[in-house]
Amino acid sequence: MHSIRKLAPSLSDADLVLAARTGELWAREALFKRHVEAVYGLAFRLLGPHCGARDVLHSTFVGCFSTLSDVRDPSAFRASVLRLTVRLVRRRLERARWLAAARLAPAPDFEAFQSQLAATTSEEVTTELGLFYQLVELLPPRQRMAFVLRRIDGLSAEEIGGLMGVSAPRVRRWLANAQRHIGPLRGSLAS
User: Fold this and answer.
1) How many whole angstroms separate alpha carbon 1 and alpha carbon 26?
2) Which of 6, 56, 58, 95 is a Cys-bridge partner for 43, taking CB atoms 3.0 to 4.6 Å apart?
3) Which domains, and CATH codes, for the chain?
């Protein structure tokens, strides 16, 4: 068994999923290590000044590992883990929007968010991203997420649709609506 565990980095996601299904903890650990940065980064970018990227990370892997037996295509583990991340972020943003409308939650913490950005990017980039996230905060959660995935991650409408579980034409409508809303506020950034 130790020799198989040492092979974990060279095994495919499909092999690791199949091993994890049989209760092999080392396979779950290998899947986690392989995808943790992608999941956390995606959650952080989508949430922006809303806290909770670590909570989303935890919930994503708990959810994926609890449903490993239901995975139809073990080689598509990465895609399914990223789709679950997007779904959990959407729920968190929708809940935050509802709580803010009911005045039951504090506003997003832009100051803490910019401090986190400053640790990894230049001052100019931190300022631009801070402004970008202030603008997308005005959008409904699904439009916001599509816009972030397009502008920050550079994904196509088809790729965004795959992550969000909707059609590419719907994503294009969301992007067009977001552009119409944000464009007049910051033409150069939204273009």
Assistant:
1) 10
2) 56
3) 1-108 (1.10.1740.10), 109-191 (1.10.10.10)
Query: String of b and e for 62-88 (b: at least 16 CB within 10 Å)?
Result: eebeeebeebeebeebeebbbbbbbbb
* Residue 107 φ/ψ, nearest 5 degrees: -70, 160
169 has pLDDT over 80: yes
DSSP H helix total and E strand total for the chain: 11, 0
Helix axes 123-136, 141-151, angle to 10 degrees: 150
Listed residue (122, 111, 133, 118) closest to 189, CA to CA: 133
Per-residue confidence (pLDDT) for residue 191, from 0 to 100: 41
* Amino acid, single-letter form, for residue 114: Q
Q: Which of 34, 23, 93, 32 is nearest to 60 (CA)?
A: 32
User: What value, to the nearest 5°, has the Cα angle with vertex 39 and ends 56 and 58?
Assistant: 35
Written as six digits, the tokens of 87 are: 């779904």
Which residues, including other chains, have CB under 8 Å from residue 16's CB and lie 6 or more apart?
8, 27, 30, 31, 34, 77
81-116 pLDDT tens trace? 999 999 999 999 999 888 877 777 677 877 888 788
> What would the pLDDT profile of 6-33 be if each residue is shown by its tens digit?
667 789 999 999 999 999 999 999 999 9
DSSP string computed for 80-137: HHHHHHHHHHHHHHHHHHHHHHTT-SPPP-HHHHHHHHHTTS-HHHHHHHHHHHHHHT
